[in-house]
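Marked as duplicate of an earlier ticket. Keeping the data here for the record.
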Amino acid sequence: MSTKMNNLFLRIKENYLLFILLWMATLLIFSYSWVPGGLDVDSCNYAVVAKEVLRSGNWLKMYDPVYGGVFYYHFPLCIWVTAFLFKLFGVSAFTAKLFSMTSAVALVGVLYYFGKMLKNQWVGFFAGFSFLITNHIIRLSRQCRMDIPVSLFIALAIFSFILAQRRNRIYYLLFGLFTFLAIFTKDVNGLFALAIVGAYLLARLRFKELIQPLFILGLLTAAAPLLLWIWLDQNTLFYTWFHQNFMHLYKSPGFNVPWYYYIWAIFTKYGYLLPLAAYGAYLGIKEAHKNKTYEFYLLVIWVIIFPLAFSFGSQKLHYFILPIYPAAALMAGLAFDKIIKDSLKPKIASAFKYLLIISSIIMLAFPIKVQSKRFIKTVRMAPLMDKILEQAAQYRFISYNQDKASLLFYSEELSRIEFTRDIRYLDEVLADPQAGLVFCYLSQEDFSKIGSATRQNCKVLLEYKDRLMTVNRACPEVTVILP
């Protein structure tokens, strides 16, 4: 019994830094994530599609109620996982964020082992810490988006590739599996796992590795499930998906920004850690030359290839290159490990531990009432809207100049919404005696733009700040509820 206890304590001691990192990540990422709301526009859109998958049971040809057509913007893994989580735990903003949040915590753990494999456990510890303090990582982790999960799978793919180089070629199968998951999560971004490894092998002139049987089997592991999905889909979505994720990014005139956009984005959003990452890159290259640990070159390629490739596209958004930040965090980890004295490192870890203990106690003993302001009006009104709508047998619901995705997600009753920005059309519908029961969600300012005769026939059912829910006529089966 004592031997088992000793082994347990030894394992805890060996993973002491990992426990601190995971504790820190969980506290930062999950704190108050259960508060209603908080999802951004894209997150609401993806969550609505997942909600529709659960409602309809159609997991292959997914329907997007926001745009009123098939969902073809990305491969479906994130939507499927979110729909499955909805089935297990119910539809909520917290459940919608769960895949991304758990992926972020897992990625911190992967960075710890990644740094430990490249150099030592302190590199892994400081890499995980650097990732957590990277601008917008925590914020994007707390969304229903693909950016953090695809970053996790790319990191796991590169990690598996290094294991295949150092230990056993059988790890190429894991490289293929994680590459498939990366592609099936976020399309173009996922392909970069192949691009990073391919560029590394070509730079080192290791052409024979490209025809190594297990490497080829790994590539088949990445490609075969994708080909199966395309076959099952019977090309219904593939061509529109290809256009959306390749040609649209390259040619879209609506996002025509300067070629140096990503250089600017890195300096403005990562500038405070950039000197450390640059110094870490230098240390990695130096280590590669000195000890022939050429895997450090993978980090450099990883950081460069994303902004370089996406700079050729017309559509440029800062989160397109988010998967570079795990590699940048590893570089920063190398720098921290070099700069900080060995005698100080355990003291820093202990300081983090006590800070986490104090923070956890404060959160439990003195809960803070937190409320997200994102789509707060829709979040507050949606439950009351549902109480009204469930009493109406048949109706039309029109959203005038209000976000459609958030309304569809936060309402349990609404699965279809008519959206318009044409005030004359809205006036005609509300004034039409043959229109049936028509509910409308709009602002007070927009309501005042409707013709006075139409306005007099409408009834305001709900009002919160400057948002209104109206109905086109008095209806006995509808109960008026005011917040």
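See parent ticket for discussion. The chain has two domains: 2-365, 376-471.
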